[in-house]
């Protein structure tokens, strides 16, 4: 077990020298989380937009479900994906368990409801603001959705960044379906947990520092986009 001072010193050295193993883990984390965010956006944004502009029986119940799914327990999602992708599961023939693809699937399921629910709120507020104008222009539902997506692009980008932040910090689901295999499925969060349990504080701290930098970068990007959206609104 290293002392805290020694661990910090070695951690900073690993980051400064671009340690190959360290950045292999970071790059895999970014690949998995960015891929999941993109897929979740492709799934969640259309759902959020449709629910925002449509009025149909059962919409209230659907909203309750959408909001509830934002709090999906990661380990439960990981377990369900594991059961489907395991050798005895219905998708076991694909051989995806303990691969980055399985981790992307688990993260997509986790953050798609978040993107759907948050984008629905953003687009519904915009729709309420422009509803009379849309009716006067006799826009179809598709045209209305496209107009709302474009007008709310900055706010929707912040929604996507929020989803990415949730994905990159995930540990429960990805360790179940990925297995934390060295040089294959080891990402920042699972590596931090493993290295801490092994007493390798230097690598754990180095990964923690980089994860913190990424989280701060995401928050800074969200804040910048929000400020841009406000400036656009005043133009």
From TrEMBL:
Q: What UniProt keywords apply to this chain's record, in alphabetical order?
A: Membrane, Transmembrane, Transmembrane helix, Transport
State the membrane topology: Multi-pass membrane protein
Q: Which GO terms describe its cellular component?
A: plasma membrane
Q: Any idea where the ABC transmembrane type-1 domain is?
A: 26-222
Recorded hits in CDD domains, A to Z, give: TM_PBP2 (cd06261)
Q: Which family does it belong to?
A: Belongs to the binding-protein-dependent transport system permease family.
Q: What's this protein's name?
A: Sulfate transport system permease protein CysW
Origin species: Tritonibacter horizontis
Q: What is the lineage of its organism?
A: Bacteria, Pseudomonadati, Pseudomonadota, Alphaproteobacteria, Rhodobacterales
